[in-house]
Design brief:
By secondary structure, the chain is mainly alpha-helical. The chain is about 80% helix and about 0% strand. The chain has one domain. The N and C termini lie far apart (about 35 Å).
């Protein structure tokens, strides 16, 4: 993780961890695999990224990232870059390009419609 995050970012992430507390961290860690599986199923079944289903998935994704990053766009971008550049890390969490593309398309569609 360190190559993608500055020392200040690492400190901010540690502060976020303290703010959220271990119980919430564990809840979020449990929510991600469920969400990733749901996104994977949506991609596999050809759900339109502009559909309400896709946009709800994208919103949940955005909410979890926001909770982790505290809304800091630099942290969110560093996190995204890490998963896109470190294939092994992404695969460990069940992430791949098709999922990222789907979420990006759904989020873009939501931004245009709302």
């Amino acid at each position: 993780m360190e190559p993608h995050f500055t020392p200040d970012m690492m400190q901010e992430l540690e502060e976020r961890r303290k703010q959220l507390g271990e119980a919430r961290i564990k809840q979020v860690e449990a929510e991600w695999p469920v969400l990733i599986d749901e996104v994977r199923a949506a991609v596999a079944s050809g759900v339109d990224p502009e559909s309400p289903v896709a946009q709800r998935l994208a919103q949940r994704w955005k909410d979890l990232v926001h909770e982790f990053t505290g809304g800091n766009p630099h942290l969110a971008q560093a996190l995204n870059t890490m998963y896109q550049q470190e294939l092994a890390t992404a695969q460990r969490y069940g992430l791949d390009d098709s999922l990222f593309r789907f979420i990006e398309q759904a989020a873009a569609a939501a931004n245009h419609s709302g």
